[in-house]
Write a structure and sequence with these properties.
This protein is 44% helix and 26% strand. By secondary structure, the chain is of the alpha+beta class. The protein has a five-stranded antiparallel sheet with strand order 2-1-5-4-3. A two-stranded antiparallel ribbon has the order 6-7. β6 (157-159) and β7 form a beta hairpin. The mean pLDDT is 84.
């Protein structure tokens, strides 16, 4: 007996490919949106949906410029012009940092960029969004800790591994100046 050949339909291959693509997008640590040539959201990952404050399925078919401009309080026509520039030039948009509104009072820093891609024989765009909240929090903490060293009346000095002075707070500078 010969083993039966498994017949795979083009439809099941396309569904499998789409599922694999969605799984790959969801594994990324930043938000990704795949846009059609008219800037409608074709696909997104969970992080992208979180940043755009929608469910992934709720974003499909929606206008990225409209959603983005509402969250950033920017002009949708300006966002569309920037995306059109990427599509026409086929050159990626430089990383841009902006703030996304969260609820009624807060906002988070987000870095975004856009890349042109070929999809289904036509042009598409890929938007990537990176939440910079953690980096902003770490910067604020670093500045807070640095301010403590500046304000303390105790002398503080920082040396590198070769014994070269990297930092001396004002109290240490005053004490060293009394030594001559």
């Amino acid at each position: 007996r010969k083993p039966k050949k498994r017949q795979t339909s083009a439809r099941s291959i396309n569904q499998s490919t789409a599922q694999t693509f969605t799984s790959l997008l969801d594994a990324l640590p930043f938000g990704v949106m795949v846009l059609t040539d008219s800037c409608l959201i074709r696909d997104t990952n969970a992080e992208g949906a979180r940043l755009l404050q929608h469910s992934p399925s709720g974003l499909i078919g929606k206008s990225f410029p409209d959603i983005w401009s509402a969250l950033t309080q920017s002009d949708a026509a300006d966002v569309m012009r920037r995306l059109d520039r990427v599509a026409m030039s086929r050159e990626p948009m430089p990383h841009t940092t902006t703030r996304l509104r969260c609820g009624t009072t807060g906002s988070i820093p987000v870095q975004w960029t856009c890349q042109p891609v070929d999809q289904d024989g036509g042009l598409g765009l890929v938007i990537s969004l990176r939440d910079l909240s953690r980096e902003e929090g770490l910067r604020e903490e670093r500045d807070r800790l640095a301010a403590i060293a500046e304000e303390t009346p105790s002398p503080i000095i920082e040396l590198d591994r070769h014994g070269q002075m990297l930092y001396a707070n004002p109290a240490m500078t005053a004490w060293l100046s009394t030594l001559g």
